[in-house]
From TrEMBL, chain A:
<dbReference type="InterPro" id="IPR023299">
    <property type="entry name" value="ATPase_P-typ_cyto_dom_N"/>
</dbReference>
<feature type="active site" description="4-aspartylphosphate intermediate">
    <location>
        <position position="405"/>
    </location>
</feature>
<feature type="transmembrane region" description="Helical">
    <location>
        <begin position="1049"/>
        <end position="1074"/>
    </location>
</feature>
<dbReference type="GO" id="GO:0005769">
    <property type="term" value="C:early endosome"/>
</dbReference>
<dbReference type="Pfam" id="PF13246">
    <property type="entry name" value="Cation_ATPase"/>
</dbReference>
<feature type="binding site">
    <location>
        <position position="784"/>
    </location>
    <ligand>
        <name>ATP</name>
    </ligand>
</feature>
<dbReference type="InterPro" id="IPR059000">
    <property type="entry name" value="ATPase_P-type_domA"/>
</dbReference>
<keyword id="KW-0812">Transmembrane</keyword>
<feature type="transmembrane region" description="Helical">
    <location>
        <begin position="901"/>
        <end position="921"/>
    </location>
</feature>
From TrEMBL, chain B:
<keyword id="KW-0812">Transmembrane</keyword>
<dbReference type="GO" id="GO:0045332">
    <property type="term" value="P:phospholipid translocation"/>
</dbReference>
<keyword id="KW-1003">Cell membrane</keyword>
<dbReference type="InterPro" id="IPR005045">
    <property type="entry name" value="CDC50/LEM3_fam"/>
</dbReference>
<comment type="similarity">
    <text>Belongs to the CDC50/LEM3 family.</text>
</comment>
<dbReference type="GO" id="GO:0016324">
    <property type="term" value="C:apical plasma membrane"/>
</dbReference>
<dbReference type="GO" id="GO:0005783">
    <property type="term" value="C:endoplasmic reticulum"/>
</dbReference>
<feature type="region of interest" description="Disordered">
    <location>
        <begin position="1"/>
        <end position="35"/>
    </location>
</feature>
<keyword id="KW-1015">Disulfide bond</keyword>
Amino acid sequence: TDRRTFCLFLVPCPALQCVGEENCVDSRTVYISHKEPPPGTEAFIQQRFPDNRIVSSKYTFWNFIPKNMFEQFRRVANFYFLVIFLVQLIIDTPTSPITSGLPLFFVITVTAIKQGYEDWLRHKADNTINQCPVHVVQHGRKVREQSHKLRVGDVVLVEENEIFPCDLILLSSSRDDGTCFVTTASLDGESSHKTYYAVQDTKAYKTEEEVSSIHATIECEQPQPDLYKFVGRINIYMNNEPVARYCPNFNWPVIVLPSAVAIYTGMETKMALNYQSKSQKRSAVEKSMNAYLVVYLCILISKAIINTALKYLWQADPNRDEPWYNERTEAERQRAFTDFLAFMVLFNYIIPVSMYVTVEMQKFLGSYFIMWDDEMFDEELQEGAVVNTSDLNEELGQVEYVFTDKTGTLTENNMEFIECCVDGHVMPGSDSIDMIDTSPGPGARVSLASEREELFFRALCLCHTVQVKEEETVDGIKHGIHQGKSSSFYISSSPDEVALVEGMKRLGFTYLRQKDGHMEIINRDDEVERFEVLEVLTFDSVRRRMSIIVRSNTGSELYLFCKGADSSIFPRVISGKVDQVKARVEHNAVEGLRTLCVAYRPLSPEQYQQVSHLLSGAKLALQDRDKQLAEAYDRIERDLILLGATAVEDRLQEKAADTIESLHKAGMKVWVLTGDKMETAAATCYASKLFRRSTQILELTTKRTEEQSLHDVLFDLSRTVLRHYGGMTRDASLSDDCTDFGLIIDGATLSSVMRPNQQGSSSGNYKELFLDICRNCSAVLCCRMAPLQKAQIVKMIKASEEHPITLAIGDGANDVSMILEAHVGIGIMGKEGRQAVRNSDYAIPKFKHLKKMLLVHGHYYYIRVSELVQYFFYKNVVFIFPQFLYQFFCGFSQQPLYDTAYLTLYNISFTSLPILLYSLIEQHINTDILKKDPSLYKDIAKNSLLRWPSFIYWTVLGVYDAIVMFFGAYFLFDNTTFTSNGQMFGNWTFGTLVFTVLVFTVTFKLALDTHYWTWINHFVIWGSLLFFVVFSLLWGGIIWPFLNYQRMYYVFMQMLSSGPAWLSIILLITACLLPDVVKKVIWRALWPTTTERIQVGSDLNGQI
Amino acid sequence: MMASSYNAKEEDGHHPGSSNHGGTGPSSSKKPDNTAFKQQRLPAWQPILTAGTVLPAFFIIGLIFIPIGIGLYVTSNNIKEFEIDYTGVEPDSPCYICAQNFSWNSTTPCICTVNFTLQQPFENNVYMYYGLSNFYQNHRRYVKSRDDKQLNGDLNNLEDPSSDCEPYRKIGGKAVAPCGAIANSLFNDTLDLSYVESNGTLNSIDLQRKGIAWWTDKHVKFKNPAGSNLSVAFQNTVMPVNWRNPVYNLDPSDPDNNGFINEDFIVWMRTAALPTFRKLYRIIPKKSGAASTLPSGSYRLKIAYNYPVLSFDGRKRMILSTISWMGGKNPFLGIAYITVGSICFFLGIVLLIINHKYGNRSSSADIPN
């Protein structure tokens, strides 16, 4: 389950961190292109570095068997059976070692095959990565190498859109300034393009020959996992003279074009070091299973203790201990204290040896149904659901909290310019070029409005940080977006800006490029307009706007263009059609569009002088520079004239609202965790029906906490919520139309809620209070979240009192932390790379598939696994309890009731397949009904089928069945014969009779629980009974070299030749099944669950 | 403008295709097959256990089981069975002296006779059993203590029995045949039955020793070691320590009933399931004509008292029983059938009421949501 791509590279050290010579003990020296340094400078020590081979597989061909055995026997259950097996080998025990050895061998083999197969897949994946081609510069030539052959010191040529094969230092790039753009999404989740700079002294070396001529060594530290720290220095030798430099601008790695030198390779790369094996997630079912196992272990031990004690009591009379007919051997007399172990061995079958392997197989095979699901296949991506861990299938049916990312998960993450509103005139953005051109106002263009309109477009074309990238061989989605004449496209760290600039292009204003301090745009009349960029007032999250001051080349007018969130623009506007624009902005925000306002301010040369004076003053300030800059910005960005507003849509994913509604109905709480700003996020929440019109929104944001202390706000909110709910409980009848609450919290406030207070005592209170509020809210929106905060929230909910099952779903690398933290992590195959998918437990193409995943697959898997677990314990109780009872009638001598063959094969062949099949294909309700009626999900919430009462019910049922079987046979055998020829049966017939009833009863019990009888069910259930009968006949009946004198010879046949045996088998099976049937029927009639009502309903419908 | 706060979520060169080769998962890039099995849409019969559907089954079970039960009960009651305890615990019981004076070393058997009266005649074949109580034939040490291979006539095991037979494996270096505790403790009382005529004369009853063991045991599972003469075949072995006669001389009257295939021996070797058990001893075949096999009247049982049971608080019994198709007298099965049948019938009525009262409710109840 470890999968990753190794698009590896090193991330720059933010600040220069040079270490003194004395600290460089743990350092490595890398010789670029493996050239020895000139003599005399320092000793040339060829250090040995690992190659670039990636190994994610666990085993090799040679160590598979020992290593796999070791790992398997580390599991408690397997170890337990191994011990039992060894005990059987060593001491004289009632059953042959085969009885536990064979099932154990079977289990171990099946698991080994499964793990071997998985490891083989990993080997294959590793090979794909290791053999992926890399360009290496050797002796002035470009050579293709396989990735795994890369050595430290190789100079690597990475081309555009390639993935870095290992950690690299950027030597030079194809761009003149030695920069390159890199995304680090697969490392830290930031998918924005980052600019990295080549080492100053090498950036001039561009061609392969030049690069090969570099003679330098790099000293750097040994590999360490910290992504953001890299310390080293480069020594460049020219004419054999060292030109040592303390890494002046060591702004490392990253490479888009040319040459880079490999620093860390293979398993030493930062990524590999950061790659931790995901902590094993265990499902709630597995936890219940282990709890049950402990109970059964206790039962087992107490049974053994009771029997041992009784045995000694019984033996106290020497005539009973050793009657004349049954003396011990000398050896037996001397051997003591093995009785307890012998009883343990006799009863050890109560711990279902094959349960683990069956559960594992069920999960492994069952997960294929998710992958095969047609409805979860996305035509567009050509991909279906992916299962990375099959351990959590049933957890999908237990989810109580859903944490979802917004962008890319709820929404498409495909920004589209929807409209702009200039002076209150709404202009649709898409498919609208014609509309504009043919719009009724060609004449209006000359009007004031048109002038404003053009200004507005210019503003949007100028006021941004978009970079233009010349089109070369870039493929991908972007290709389709701009069909324009120029073959360039835009890159920006904000997709909104790209959408805006592209929107402008459609409206006739094309941003060309920035050149020599001038921005060039093409206006509607295909004329190039040039604007000199004078100042850029960059964006920051406090001001929430950015401005640019430009001088028009044509008219030499000076303009300040400002673009920002409505809340930060409107207060600064002095004129313009504020009301209309405001109304439109609000309208758009409610629609879930991302809105921005645009304003401008014409500057006179004097004003500009003032402005530039202000700015330069602030920039030169030695103290409080940031503060002074902010003040300067504040003074500059005022007296604005409102131009209009834009609306960009990040469209909701198909059926997102429907999905969220279903999740709500299924009793899940949906939290949206996003890095986005509050308004947009809230709008999305409304659009996706997370918040309804009736929802009362509680805000816990920085804005509020600025006004009141956090303490007060929290108490206020909790009072509101609790008062409301207090009122509700009084007249619960009104609860339906009561408003529900939605909470909005932002990252800053959250961190202050989570932050331990100075007085340690009250810190917990905040958290508790916050949790209290959250619990009473139907929906929670957390905005402005850092990736780590997302995980924190998940962790907090996980750790709360009820320990709810959480599910996190996201598409980006910034969701990875929460995906890993939550009980179930789901990745969306979005546009942001595969990081989330790779770290998730399950991956689906679209958010809407979550519905089927949880409501159908999760539900089924839970039902299936819980039945599987309960049934396994049940059938082993029924199996072993008669054996326990028999001890009371055989002098506690550990005499087994059943023959060795039956003991061995009961779990691995007579009763294994029906339950495995049940657990794969059972459907208690039709898929369609499950999807239609999400409330059915509540029926299985809180692990309801594996709670103690139902576990006790199954166990009691098992004990009852065992008692019926044993005493039924006992009374039948009671001192009489039941053959028509007067001959008597012995103890093996007794055991066989019980065993026959047993096999039939447990199989029929499963048949009664099966709601979905396909031909496979019929085949397996009747087939396994038939197999039992045929096996018994063969084992006891056929004349075979050694079978004809073994103890089971003809026992089964003899039993079947007697009428009363048949009658009693029928009677006992009926008596065993009766209580369960009656319980089911009565419960269904008197206290039906929703599920059962629907079953009956659909049944009736089906009949009609 | 939101650059600093907003993680750019644009395509970054890692479009799915390019980074896919990192995934090792079984991610299928092709559309999954639309087969019924893979889509979990196999046609299926979907039965639901409701009061309505189970009702008829309960009545039917009740209606079938009760007559069967009555039939079984009547059959069982028609079986005649007579049982007499001859252990000799009580001082006034005829075998008291034999029981008290038992010695392993005595060479002559202690004989005691027990008189009893059959109130009713026994028709058809009558089966004579001996019964033992508190005898743990199902003790693990005991059950195990045999060598099936030896009993199957294997020559190697004849002279070198399995270690399972310990401590009844070898005596003085010679293999015990048959070895083991079960064989060693072979029941060796001899029971003779005579009818006491009204004039006091004893009329010995013919007891048949054939057909008391399973046919397969006698012919397949147990075999004598090869050899024309049994005593020669067993010459390198010794008889079990508690035996009076060697294995090749168990039945002097019938040379074919000796060795390992002696039927009394085979019967004994089939270990009983419970500590109180009976084993078939003899068959009294039905007389030709209309005469009862055992007419009512007085009988005398002559016992060669060889088998000690008092030491472990055991009891010995002699049982005479007729047999029906369902075996010996055992009212359990009949009663159980009647009980289960009645319960089913009763439950059927309960379910009828429930179905009547609640059935409509639950089926017509509004399905929530």
